Amino acid sequence: MEKKRLVLDGAALVLYALAALPAFTGIAAHEWLSLAAIAVLLAHCVAGLGGVAGGGLLRRSPSWTAHLALDGLILVVLAVCATSGIMVSGAALPALGLHATGYFFWDPLHAVSAKALLALLLVHVALHAGWVAASVRREGRVRREGRRREGS
Question: So what's the pLDDT on residue 93?
């Protein structure tokens, strides 16, 4: 299960990193990568719900509650960023035969929410760096032990 979670988290990080650089990818790729990133980030959120439902909210520490609040804030900002991004779309939305009005409202909202999302995700990744490092070490240990057994 942990390996699947690492792969999902890695995919979310790579997709977000690519989608967050429209000057590098171009607008059309930015929009389509962003839609893919939204799906993967939502899957990441759903995968994290197991920790919320599994142990109950009352037995958790204040730091766990702070992490949960941060994750909730990230989800809200992601929703604002995604919605405003779709509303200013110059490639994905027209490709579906749709058009949105209100560019001068949605564009600044998208710019601000994208910057807020980046800042919140940096904090999120930093807070979970210990778990990621431990999981990677554990996965490496499992692989080494598996190779030793095969070689024996």
Answer: 86
